Amino acid sequence: MEKAGKKTSRAERKARRPQEILEAAFEEFTGKGYAATRVEDVAARLGVTKGTIYLYFPTKDVLFEAMNRHMSAPFADVLASAGTLKGSCSERLQALLLLAYEKVSNDRKTRELLRLALAEGARFPDIVDRHYDEFIAPLFGAVGGLVEQGVASGEFRQGAAASTPDVVVSSVLHITVWRLLFADRRPLNEPAFIEAHIDLVLKGLLQRS
User: Which residues bind DNA (predicted)?
Assistant: First the structure.
């Protein structure tokens, strides 16, 4: 049994360093924006030298890209779980949308990365492209694949809603942007909003008797 208060070994600290850098980079980039953030700011937050950051991430752009991948990993895990959902296509779609609301709207880090993309996108289009590739496209893919299964099985009808997954997902992004802009002034009744969204989606997709 390890003694309480045992010091972390140098190897353990070294193994944790990349993740610590990426966590610090997230706070700096989302707090100051891409343009205003300097690598030395990330280093100062960690209490290390700028050279330590460059040892793992040779440029600010490489650091930013790695930070995005690191922060999107839990979201990717959520989407990967879509394949393990049980029930009818409508039940699985409802469960997937609830997961998306939880991970996109309710997760501070995901919200702040969207804020960064909105704020910096005009000056740095690559930030928007990366955000789309890491977050939006995988969500569209997971929802679109599930809707296609529903159409193929006859549970969902073919139509505009079935062919445009962005319509199915759009309210997830809407509520996230609303939180960023109006959370302190015009808070939504989020449970009612989510229930209404899912109800509208399913009524638009399910076969009509």
Answer: 38-57
Cα separation, 204 vs 118, whole angstroms: 30
> In sequence order, what are the residues at sequence separation of 6 or more whose Cβ sits closer than 8 angstroms to the Cβ of residue 184?
none
CATH of span 60-205: 1.10.357.10
Provide the 10 A C-beta neighbour count for residue 162. Answer: 18
Report the distance separating Cα 56 and Cα 17, nearest Å.
9
The model's pTM: 0.79
Structure confidence by residue, pLDDT tens digits, 160-203: 777 788 888 889 989 989 988 887 888 889 999 999 999 999 99
Is residue 102 within 8 Å of 128, Cβ to Cβ? no
Dump pLDDT digits (tens) for 106-155: 888 888 988 999 998 888 898 899 888 888 888 888 899 899 999 999 99
Dihedral pair phi/psi, residue 193, rounded to 5° = -60, -50
Domain 8-58 bears CATH identifier 1.10.10.60: yes
Distance CA 12, CA 170 (A): 42
Among the listed residues 49, 104, 50, the one whose alpha carbon sits nearest the alpha carbon of residue 78: 104
- Domain boundaries of the chain, sorted by first residue: 8-58, 60-205
